[in-house]
Design brief:
Order of helices and strands: HEHEHHH
Structural class: mainly alpha
Number of helices: 5
Strand content: under 5%
């Protein structure tokens, strides 16, 4: 990402469906997802991260860390229920 325009859907998709994610700091700014990503801001840093992760297995601990954060912060169903609750409380 080259601009901070909120949460990136591509990042969420990669975190829900992929394995290791190498991103720049702009991509995760304000998302609370930095603990799930490998962050680099310079080309050489990306190369080093990719070299290190290429053969590193994606472990059960990695999957569990994603589940804990993604399914509490970015769960569409839970967020939709919360929005409906806010609407009904505001209009009651």
């Amino acid at each position: 990402a080259f601009s901070n325009t909120g949460i990136k859907l591509k990042l969420l998709n990669a975190l829900y469906n992929g394995k290791h994610c190498a991103v720049n700091s702009i991509m995760i700014e304000g998302t609370r997802l930095e603990e799930l990503c490998h962050v680099a801001d310079k080309p050489q840093a990306f190369i080093e991260i990719i070299d290190r992760l290429y053969r590193q297995p994606f472990a059960a601990d990695d999957i569990e860390a994603r589940r804990k954060l993604l399914y509490t912060e970015y769960d569409n169903e839970a967020n939709a229920r919360q929005m409906v609750k806010w609407i009904w409380e505001t209009n009651a």
